[in-house]
Amino acid sequence: MLVVPRKRPAAVSGLARHTARSALTGTLRQGPDRQRFEDAVAARLDGASVAAVGSGRLALLLVLESLGIRPPATIVLAAYNASCVPNVLQAAGFRPWFVDVREDTLHLDADALPAAPPPGAEALIITHIEGSPAPVGTLAAWARRHGLAVVEDAAHALGARLDGRPVGSLGDGAIFSLGRGKHLNTLGGGLAVVRAPDAAERLSALADALPAPGAGALLKQVLLEGVIETGTAPALFGALAMPAMRLARRFGRDPMTALFEDDKSALAAIPEPMRRRLSNLQAGFGLAALPAFAEALRRRREHADALRARLGGVLSLQTPVAGAEPAWLELTALVDDRDGFQAALLARGVDTQRTWMDACDALPAFAGAASPPCPTARRVAERAVYLPTYAALTDAQREAMADVVLDVALATSPRVARRRGAA
Ligand SMILES: Cc1ncc(COP(=O)(O)O)c(C=O)c1O
After folding, report:
1. Were 143 and a residue from 148, 222, 306, 382 both cysteine, which residue would form a disulfide, CB within 3.0 to 4.6 Å?
2. What is the pLDDT confidence band of residue 422, given thresholds at 50, 70 and 90?
């Protein structure tokens, strides 16, 4: 029977071996690997300055501060977004200002940018959503015209390129996330990136003032990672998690989503364990993952391209912009009856995740934002579901999954069936 878990975290190479060695040599918290990791990433970003810290959202606050952007500045960003981003901005005293997105690319819609920036605006965040590079040229031109800094949110997009240039090197600053669900898994973490020398000096000082996580907390994370890696192996997942999730679906629940969802309440600041420098141990995981990284990205692209080729005629799938080499984190499909679609797939062995993104302008936490409503973001947030593209997916799984998705799309959406019939 087909079993496709929605996610397999990128495997951490040498998890137990590397941890044991670091513990024995006393280099769990501090050691040379952090600098090596930062240098290795910087070399891949055309020499930008990089600081490795406890999370992507902390990296964002550090980048803004390094660029001299302080609360209560207004920060312009896409409405269809990870709620944790405007949330930490707001909690830090910034004013998020939302712009609607495009339904095809899911990027901030250049046509929805206001003729004049909102009062107090100092930065535009350009999000490379789900690893698909945004059209930075057009969006950054608006920001430059109005004197705003450009910060790339490349949390989803490590390794993606636009017109041959690495994302994360296209603005004044950038962030990447090294969380469990991302391409490069260091058991949580983030990279702050800036270009100008004075900003680099400030970033380095801010990052160095952060404490490294404690050894106990690190070992707990390593243990948890072992459990997740084992639990998402298809055999075990099919035997244990799938029946439980099918049962929960009958009651309209998705326990996996509930387990990992961010707090969306008004002032959810950065959780305490994330307010850290990246530990030497975690940086070592990052370094160890770099040699195989390009191959993992290639696999993700292969999966996404194959799914787009087979399903693009019947499903609305996220479309890359011209010149983009995406680092697909997920492939987003927009479906009308999302719950019905996911339940029908799960019954046939394909586990999917509804989008983690929200129409942030519609969240109660941002009721005070002065930006106009963003109807496309709302439509997308209600319909978006992820098709898996992780590197560990086999070709056989992918093709079998595509068969099931085609069947279900035709059976559950009269609109799709009609479109097909007419073709
Ligand atoms: C678009 C986006 N930006 C930033 C972040 C923050 O990254 P982190 O979870 O490492 O803080 C996330 C988290 O998933 C995200 O999805």
Report:
1. 148
2. low
